[in-house]
């Protein structure tokens, strides 16, 4: 392609050639190209394509379903979205569709709520006009709470005494828990009767129209103050014996327990054949349902304190004249200050007297309160003269702090207070355990001490020492009472351990009997070996005696070859029997006084203290 | 722990309660207090080295089959039918009850006790009838709640059947 001329010429020529090729193509491929155009049309025109796919869609879907759940997964988000969209646009359609399923559930929930409201309303009304009610009205005025709230607070006092988990068909108890102190009958008998009663109620009272669960018994009342709540599931029910007035939320909690049980053990329940073992798992859960609520008595003052107050008052003859209402004469400002002083725990103002612009307070204070007046700013204290007599406040915080100070527990011990019982947990030595036992109950406000789970570290040390000792072997030359060389360290361990044992048995008030046992190898005559073994034991005894202050609890024994430390299958084994070993016997010294109660318990204390 | 529920059924005053009391508490009384509804007792029995708790439902006597409370039978692992040897009709009642129980519960291990064996002179059910029933594969045991005759054995035999040993 050189000059422009030749270019033009060749183009002309090409175009004529093209025209003829097209004509040829047309002749040759006309039918195909028509088909192609049609195909193109089928592919391009959405209407046509849709028409065709719609014909094969059902087959395609069913093939895809047969092959697995891929289709489901792919389609699911689309369906989710379209459902949402559909509900958004036309909620009524969905409501209509699911109403039959939701209806009974909602009805039940509403009934429960209304029952709950009626119950609390009842209480409010019941208490409106009693003396108690008037008291509570005053309390409401004072605290700014609603009257109803005060009543609820004061009456919602309850305790769940027992919970039964019962297999529905057989009436057999799967698991049963009891609150401390509750009186119980054989749970199987109780649950059997409960089941029978339910059967009876269902047979006798459920009417045909009602769904099965509607005719069920859900509460039994016993006397005025006790009830049994029944929460029923498909295969099992939960029955809670409750004293007092439980809140309705508790029912929801039990409902959840029973649902959880069916979720986790539904098949075991359905196939239940009398084996209750698998249901022990639910014990913890049931225990968490043993709830209680105590009356809130923060205002209540212990009778002991009143007694002290009364004595104080009697003693201070001059005071009664100023008792109580004198305060009314004081200004509003003074009232505020006095309130602050009085509001402190561990502080009791007995009388107030105004004298020459000075307020004279007489009262009681717990030694743990530094100075009751420090709640006031210092300029507000200048006109107050206070005289405080010491008294022990029985407020739990004070009781606990007092226990902490007086008992001074070692780092491994934690104290806690459960009502009037002081509980110690952790590790402590015998000396501290003794202190705890003797002194805890002497602390005002503490009636009982519980250190049952305390781990006695001295006791552990003793068993460690005994183990060390019984593991120790001292070896001798052949046919001799001479030690083989290289055992100096063992000997000093021996002396140390014996000293430990001696020290610990005194602390623990136990007696320990240590026996040094001599052995020989199996060569030589029986008679000779007995003598040699005895002499070996005595050699060690003499050594101990020379190094240790006390040895009265040690004796010796020769056993010759009668007790083998090792079977002599090879020559080298013999050396192991030319030895002394040690035995230790822990005996209790005298019949346990409460003092060494724990020392006598359990010769092998577990380190976890359980 | 394995626990099994069993039920006692039979006509009025055949001695269901007495049998249970004899078995569980080893006591017998001549007084008749009819059972209303159901009375439940529990005892432990050793079946070839395995301890099984029996929860025994002592049902009220039933002469009118139309009103048998089948719901009480639910979940039973075994049944005891009781007849009174001194009243022939009670055997028919027992057999009828068995039929009803079987149609609603399927076949369960069971025993047929013919009670009051101590009253031999007033006996109305002869040995032939009992042999006949045995021939049909029914365990028929003459018992006496009064003397304790075969009572323990009958309960334990049922327990063995229920545990499948
Ligand atoms: N002689 C004798 N008397 C019996 C025996 N068993 C029961 N009785 C008496 O029969 C009467 C009825 O006994 P129950 O055990 O109460 O009978 P039941 O089958 O429980 O009766 P219901 O509960 O009313 O169905 C009582 O007076 C018993 O003392 C027995 O073996 N021998
Ligand atoms: Mg009876």
Please explain how this structure is put together.
The complex is a heterodimer of chains A (610) and B (165). By secondary structure, chain A is α+β, with helices and mostly antiparallel strands. Among the domains of chain A are: 159-293, Dynein light chain 2a, cytoplasmic (Beta-Lactamase), CATH 3.30.450; 312-389, GMP Synthetase, Chain A, domain 3 (2-Layer Sandwich), CATH 3.30.300; 396-452; 457-600, 60s Ribosomal Protein L30, Chain: A. Chain A has helices spanning 4-44, 46-67, 70-89, 91-128, 131-143, 147-155, 187-205, 249-270, 283-288, 303-315, 332-342, 396-407, 430-439, 457-471, 488-508, 526-547, 574-577, 597-600; strands at residues 158-167, 173-178, 219-222, 226-232, 236-244, 292-293, 347-355, 358-365, 384-390, 413-418, 421-428, 448-450, 455-456, 474-475, 510-518, 554-558, 579-588. Mean pLDDT of chain A is 78; it is low at 296-302, 317-329 and 590-610. With 165 residues, chain B is an alpha/beta fold. Chain B has a single domain (2-162), classed as Rossmann fold. The mean pLDDT of chain B is 91. In chain B, strand 4, helix 2 (88-105) and strand 5 form a beta-alpha-beta unit. In chain B, 30% of the residues lie in helices and 27% in strands. Chain B contains four helices and six strands; from the N terminus they run βαβββαβαβα. In chain B, strands 2-3-1-4-5-6 form a six-stranded mixed beta sheet, sandwiched between helices. Chain A binds chain B through residues 167-173, 186, 188-189, 192-193, 196, 199-200, 202-203, 273-277, and chain B through 1-5, 37-38, 40-42, 52-53, 55, 57, 69, 71-72, 74-77. Bound molecules: guanosine-5'-triphosphate (GTP) and magnesium ion. Guanosine-5'-triphosphate (GTP) binds next to helix 1 of chain B.
